[in-house]
Amino acid sequence: MRMGELPAEERPRERMRALGVEALSMRELLALVIGSGSRGKGTMEVADDLVVSFESVRDLALASVERLCRVSGVGVARASRVMAAIELGKRVLKSSRGDRKTVRCPADAAGMVMEDMMNLDREHFRVMLLDSKNAVISVETVSIGTVNASIVHPREVLKPALEKSATSIILVHNHPTGSVSPSREDILITRRFEKCGRILGIDVVDHIIVGDNNYVSMKEGGYL
Fold it and tell me: Which CATH entry fits the domain spanning 106-217: 3.40.140.10, 3.30.70.1130, 3.30.365.10, 3.40.50.970?
């Protein structure tokens, strides 16, 4: 039976909307990923053949495009969709396992952004969000300025920290000139953000300035 011939309440898409994606069987999930059937075979039939052709979800996850294409009704396009869906799942799983980098010192934080930021031709102001164990939740770009200036407001920095439940943050920006000497404005911004963070219960633990393959820590420099 083709997908369109099923009663509305039995179609995978409708069941997902009504019950949630976790309620769907492997067959139904594959049918949604495949999207359509092939000549002489409906979507559900192709999904059935996939389920039968692999011993387990793990076996399916390890399959190559060539192996998937051996299943009747599965061509390169459908095999690619299946592999893309599996890869997304792997990445979500990797993230959920707490595979986050931990910041133990300023060098750790600088190392995470150095390669990306040291060659930028304009000032980029970013905020590194940390959880209660100093693991990096994410690094957010909050402002892109000119060659020698980046205009940033505390609300732009603290908003992502609040949205992602960060307990502390590290401010990061680059100096396209290559010099890492803190400017007077850098010092004032750091202290201003530290005060704003304290009000909201978010600890500003450092401000890293990235230059030409080097960096400076405002905390180590005694500015914070």
Answer: 3.40.140.10
